[in-house]
């Protein structure tokens, strides 16, 4: 995965009210934390960040920034949004070392079409991402999952994934990624209407026989 250059600035104020003021000024409040090192309160231009992550899966991206003469490499650990999901409220950056393995979240992308030889159905994706352990340089932006051999009523599990040997899957192997389910056929409306007519006719006959 390519490491993206990002412009992060220090911020001194903390708390909800100061975070609101910061967002009104066009900035996203953020925090950077690292193992055995100093943690920073940061901020980034909302426009710049949205431009940077356009068409990308945000969480799990590798970024690089300079601060006080030092350069840091980090992964976007968490992106907090508002209830509507249309505004970024806060960012968490986790410091990583290029020479040490870390755990990352990687999105799963389904490819291909399932086997319809035994009937048609619908694909339900249960798992959108998995956790892997690897060096930052080996981190993929996404993992492609081929579902072309999936038959009706079959499920694809994490243990079925074929990944690069440099990647160690941390997610439970029994987790279901996707399942191919048969489509439930709806009974034609006319059948229901015939059943109602039949019931009415039966009641009428019983009334006449009394």
Structural account:
- By secondary structure, this protein is of the alpha+beta class.
- It has 2 domains: 4-96, Ribosomal Protein L25, Chain P; 105-182, Ribosomal protein L25, C-terminal domain (RNA Polymerase Alpha Subunit, Chain A, domain 2, Beta Complex), CATH 2.170.120.20.
- Helices cover 18% and strands 38% of the residues.
- The chain contains 3 helices and 14 strands.
- It has helices at 16-24, 46-52, 189-209; strands spanning 4-5, 9-10, 27-33, 40-45, 62-67, 70-81, 88-95, 102-111, 121-125, 129-134, 143-146, 155-157, 168-169, 176-182.
- The strands form 3 sheets. The protein has a 7-stranded mixed sheet. A 4-stranded mixed sheet has the order 11-8-10-13, with no helix packed on it. A 3-stranded antiparallel sheet has the order 9-14-12, with no helix packed on it.
- A hairpin with a 2-residue loop joins strand 5 and strand 6.
- The protein is globular, with a radius of gyration of 27 Å.
- The termini are far apart.
- The model has no long low-confidence stretch (mean pLDDT 86).
